[in-house]
Amino acid sequence: MSQTLEERVAKLEQTVAEMLANPREPRRDDWRKTIGMFTGDAVMREIDDEALKVREQDRREARL
């Protein structure tokens, strides 16, 4: 790394300024594409069942 700290900070500041000057459109619907993605999937059901067991055990232990 031959750059000085000041040079590195200046480059970061320039990059951030460029990003702020040209914001991207928010990708609003990306998370919605995952809804129903694993419907009917046996492996996902097994994962959900095991996660539920862990959560229930944590709740029981928290009550002690």
Describe this structure in words.
The chain is mainly alpha-helical and 64 residues long. It has one domain (5-25, 35-63). The protein is 61% helix and 0% strand. The relative contact order is 0.06. The model has no long low-confidence stretch (mean pLDDT 92).
Topology, element by element:
Blueprint: H1 5-21, H2 42-63
Which descriptors would you attach to this protein?
64 residues, mainly alpha, 2 helices, elongated
Write down the overall geometry. Answer: elongated
Helical residue percent band? 55-70%
Q: Kindly provide the radius of gyration, computed on alpha-carbon positions and rounded to a whole number of angstroms.
A: 23 Å
Strand-residue proportion: under 5%
Structural class: mainly alpha
Overall residue-averaged pLDDT value: 92
Order of helices and strands: HH
Q: In total, how many beta strands? A: 0
Tally of individual helices = 2
Concise description?
It is built from two helices and no strands. It is mainly α and 64 residues long.
